[in-house]
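Z., the sequence and structure:
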Amino acid sequence: MLQVLGQPARGPNGVTRRELLRAGMLAVGGLTLADLLRCEGRANLKTTPRAKHCILVFLNGGPSQLDTFDLKPDAPSGIRGPYRPIATRVPGIHISEKLPRLAQLADKFSIARSFHHHLLAHNTGAAYALSGHSPGSDANIAPTAMDHPTYGSVVSRMIPAESAIPSFVLMPTWLFDMGFPTPSAGGGWLGLAYDPFPLVRNQMMSASPKWEGEFPLPQGLALPLDVSASRLSDRRALLTRIDGGFTSEHQDAGLVTLDAHEQKGFELLLAPEARSAFDLKQEPTRVRDRYGRSEMGQVLLLSRRLIEAGVRFVTANAVSDPPRKQLASFQIWDTHFEHFRLYDSYLMHELDQGLSALISDLDERGLLAETIVLVMGEFGRTPKINDNDGGGRDHWPHAYSVLWAGGGARAGQVIGSTDQHAAFVKDRPLKPDDLSATLYEALGFPHDTRLVDISGRPRPISEGTPIRELLG
């Protein structure tokens, strides 16, 4: 039972707010949405933003730098692999022959080839990549309440959406590894209020069901068949009357926050544009085909729809579901086995088609200048090809590539370089800390901003240095 100062919260007729919520709001899923979309704080921006939105295309599991954006054709065959570099639209820049569509868009993005860190585990590497703060060591694979918040959580705290649409959306899978959810994938020390709105097809700690070509509407977003929008509005009016000004007379922070959550839930349920944003069936067939009918392609198309609807930050996990022998579907880029078969038949084609369509589509709609598209995994892969079934590459955080498109950043360049085997950084070393600083500056707030955590302690959102080549 909801309590204020130890007493049940009751309206003038003796009905508790909890009882009313159970009778009305829970029946249409509103409280679930309210819990997911807690009140958003707004900070004063001190710089002029280059970008308004960001899509983080997360290649969960870790893609190979040697087979994507940092090929080494002169390395021994046991290192370079079978793929050859191809020229791009920008003279002097070459990427994998498996990415021909992206090669024709090289003037729209930059590649940083000199990222590195020290973490070898998926959860710790991902926590670092998703927040720009190192979790310390590979022993820290379990999340805690004081983890550093992920980028989308900081963004939704600083510049929340101005409509019923959520500020921060995660899709299409929850992240986890080794029996634990991934740290720094949500609000962390900012609090659960800044966790992402999840559009996910899996339960936490489980694989997604087989991809059948469509995403369901988010749970709780669609009204039941027997509840119309007008009927829901009537329930809201009834709740307000029964409340009788109780909240205004009892300024308990928890109660005021709950009211804000309820309001957000009602806004989402009653806003047709919010429901429409999540509905891929409204896209023309030719557009869906352009992105590819794979889950990866459709995730990227849905990301564009959400940005158009006003979502500030989307974390889009670039998943796939190919037939495989020893590969986790939730870490599809973790190719210890059958590396080249999976790259040849599924991963590279799906990424090339979906990502090139996303960048082109945003550009054609006038959205690329204000939308950052950031593409990366938690680390790279080993230069040496292992002897596992079908050949594979293992975890390698000492050198990996990151692609940045849009958001007003300089494009058509390569930043940094690696040695002859793409094993170690040769010049312009960069870390996730620097990426976080660059991202926040591009979105319009200083990278040295401090926010107060749930214990009342001020904390920096980044401790890195902005990448000057991107910001100019």
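The two ends are 55 Å apart (CA to CA). The chain has a mean pLDDT of 84.

Let me know what you think.
H.
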